[in-house]
Amino acid sequence: MAxxxxxxxxxxxxxxxxxxxxxxPIFLYGFKDIAASGEDELIDYDVPAGYRLHIINxxxxxxxxxxxxxxxxxxxxxxxxxxxDVNFMFPPTDSGDIVVDxxxxxxxxxxxxxxxxxxxxxxxxxxLEYKS
Length: 132
Hints:
By secondary structure, this protein is mostly beta strands. Helix content is 0%, strand content 56%. It has a single domain, classed as Sandwich (Jelly Rolls), CATH 2.60.120.20. The strands form 2 sheets. Strands 1, 3, 6, 7 and 9 form a 5-stranded antiparallel sheet that branches. A 4-stranded antiparallel sheet has the order 2-8-4-5, with no helix packed on it. The chain is elongated, with a radius of gyration of 19 Å.
């Protein structure tokens, strides 16, 4: 930095948004206390008419250490089934994002394999795309 010059700006320099006018960012979030050896849905979302849902990242976590399982499915098809301990972040599929058409459904189900009740959090990150 040159002598006598500040090394910061007085304002933010906004860049181009990563979404087009036909895309809306979406964050689906759910949490529940699941009893020992129990299973429950954290997220159950129906895609609205005229839109296509793209899920680009998935996160699940638990407040108790142990071998837990997470199931991610869409409209009757299993997409991902995995074991995790406390935190687990993964791309939805090995080939890219999950795409769910209008009227479709995306869900996340967790199983508590521990001996005590635990709280589970889950989220889907992605965007809704308008089908023109």
